[in-house]
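Researcher: Please translate sequence to structure tokens.
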Amino acid sequence: MPDGELTCLRCLEERPKEELDRLLWCEECVERAKRRASRIGWGSGAVIALLVGLYIWFVVQPDLSLIPALWGATLAVAFYLGGRVAREIAIGVMRLRNRRAVEARPPEAPPASDTG
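Model: Translation complete:
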């Protein structure tokens, strides 16, 4: 291994140490983890908004003649904040667990030679 190169713990590719962060993840692995956390976060935000909507509908039982846009805004805020919080928790858990080689891809196998 040449001087100044380290192995990314997620994809096992050798990179210059300047390209790795403090947990030895390369930029591509960080971006993939952020995209995955985004999907988890927005899905969780939708579930939270649905639960808040069900709570409002069945427990609060609002009179929809009174400013229905504010009830919709409440659901939008629940979706946005729930999604953002879930995203941050997901990325934090991914970074904290720091599973080695989770993004690694096996090398291409050389063609088999028929010797016999």
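Researcher: Any highlights?
Model: The beta strands are 5-7, 14-16.
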